[in-house]
Amino acid sequence: MSTTHPLPQHGEDPAIEPIRERMAAAIVRHLDGRNEAATSVAGLNIYSCGYTTAPESYLYAPSFAFIVRGTKRVVLGAETYVYDERQFLLTAINLPTIVQVIGATDEAPYLSLKWDVDLELARELIAEVDAVGAGKVGGGRGMAVGAVTPELASATMRLIDLLDAPHDIPILARGIEREILYRVLSSHAGVRLRQAVQVGTQTHRVANAIRWIHDHYRRPLRIDELARAAGMGESTLHRHFRVLTGMSPLQYQKQLRLNEARRLMLSDRLHAGVAARNVGYESEAQFNREYRRLFGAPPKRDVQELRDRPGRGE
Asked: Any residues with CB less than 8 A from the CB of 145 and at least 6 apart, and which?
């Protein structure tokens, strides 16, 4: 059964709009005509897209994503998240998704940023938050949307401002990132990150299982071996894995394999059969079937369409 999380109907605090105008101008200036760019702040990437994209696979790492202008659809298993500039997207663990930029044009481009969360910083901050009794509890998927507040927008703008003062980055970036994380952890969405990084929670154990799959995705998946790596019983692992990711461990591994094969064909120009073997497939026919089911086209045609397409937005 699929679930869609639609856009909220309420408006946004008017104090955020001037901040957003500054963000948009800064991102356009630093992109300088490109569709995406890594920045001098570690883990911070900026994006622009002037058209509605086709649905594409994307592997989210633990991250904070902030839309400055536009709307995006993210599909995680049977869950669909539609969010715009009024929300941020928090991803607490590595998650394979299908993403699509909606309604962007050259005149009104989609603009966004994504910061890969420093998990060690998150652990330190959670301990401090808990020490003063300000922690929130909850659970659910390893991905959630939260409301953008003036305080969060202001902290995010200050992180972008550092791009114009690179000599300040080593001194000021970590403090600003702490504030962003604090604002996120104080939100309803922040409980997902809390559970993923706190040792001893079921979410943390599932995160360990996910890391194990990433490290061994080329091998046939044995649930008993995965359960031992996570420190969980097999049935408990299955249940919590599906709650957190929206899919079974085997489905998760399959998406990892197919995404990596796509990258190898696109970036390293490997033939489909070679890419299939490199990611663990023994049957090229099975690889072709599963690839087409996920990406909507056979490998050769899909990769050629990607190469012919303009730069893609995050």
From this structure: 5, 81, 83, 87, 88, 89, 90, 189
Q: What is the pLDDT of residues 228-259, one digit of tens each?
A: 999 999 999 999 999 888 899 999 999 999 99
| Nearest Cα residue to 236 out of 193, 212, 201, 211 | 201
- In tens, the pLDDT along 161-208 reads 999 999 999 999 999 999 999 999 988 888 888 888 876 678 889 989
Least Cα distance to 255 among 210, 223, 204 occurs for: 210
* Alpha carbons 67 and 20: distance in angstroms, whole number: 9
**CB contact at 8 A, 19 and 154:** yes
What 8-state DSSP symbol labels residue 166?
G
Q: Residue for token digits 């105008």? A: 21
pTM: 0.84
CA 97 – CA 295 distance, rounded (Å): 11
Q: Which of 59, 30, 42 lies closest to 314 in space, CA to CA?
A: 59
